[in-house]
Amino acid sequence: MKQPYNTTIYNTALYMRLSRDDENYGDSVSIETQRTILQQYAKEQGLHVVGEYVDDGWSGTNFERPDFQRMMDDVEAGKVNCIVTKDLSRFGREHVMMDYYLEFLFPEKRVRYIAVAENEDTEKGLSDFVPFKNLFNEWFAKDTSRKVKAAFKVKFATGQRIGAYAPIGYRKHPEIKNKLIIDEETRWIVEKIFDLAFHGRGAASITSILIAEKVPTPGFINFQRDGTFANIYAGAPEEKSYAWTIAQVKRSRPPN
Predict the structure, then answer these.
(1) 204 near 210, Cβ under 8 Å?
(2) How far apart are CA 120 and CA 123, in angstroms?
(3) Are the C-beta atoms of 106 and 45 separated by less than 8 Å?
(4) Nearest in space to 58 (alpha carbons), one of 24, 88, 21, 87
């Protein structure tokens, strides 16, 4: 049952978001840092936490994030009547949508919103600076996007790689930044894919063969080596480690 707005019991969602650009600013905005801050705040304020919602790798200018939508579905269902984020930018970086949620939707749904680091709380009344903060957060996202695109353009022109992870069959060079070398441990996977393609197999057929032979996916190999993609593979069933997709097969290219 949905709680009335003035109740002392808040069914609280702890919402965390991190974009690829945010990672340049280190641990201060990491998901784990956000989680620590939000859990501590909820404990101190006596908030009843009903769930954590995490969008890792999603821009704040995009409100179609999967866990954000899941959280808003829970708001609609009456399961959540309080949302807590580290700051306003974690919730979003588009000022029109921010105004919509803070000024219209949340009051209509009787949802309390708290931005911990900025001491903003709709129950106490938002400060007059919130619209300016939202405008700045949007400008910051656009400015960062321009800078990232400019940096990518320079890398393209000089033939440097821009991906965060090496494709299957390759590894990052241990000394030279933005350079790849052949991965002798996994090159056989890519060579197998191209051998099958050479003999007439299509992407869907190759995918089925890789899954049937339990060939590990690129993501699972990275998880085993470096612990990346733990949110996908940690504690997941064994089938997840070799659940190849057609897109992964098409992205593979032979070492040379």
Answers:
(1) no
(2) 9
(3) no
(4) 21
Domain ranges of the chain: 11-138, 170-251
Does the model's pTM come out above 0.70? no
Task: Give CA–CA dist 230/223, Å, rounded.
Answer: 6
- Enumerate the β-bridge partners of residue 51: 13
The hierarchical CATH code for the domain 11-138 is: 3.40.50.1390
Which pLDDT tens digit goes with each residue over 132-143? Answer: 887 877 776 666
Mean of the per-residue pLDDT values for the chain? 84
How far are the Cα atoms of 190, 213, 229, 233 from residue 240, in angstroms, in the given order? 19, 13, 12, 7
Reduced to 3 states (helix: H, G, I; strand: E, B; else coil), residue 158 is coil
Which whole-number Å values give the CA distances from 89 to 85, 115, 183, 233, in the listed order?
Answer: 9, 9, 39, 28
| Tokens representing residue 224 in the block | 């085993």
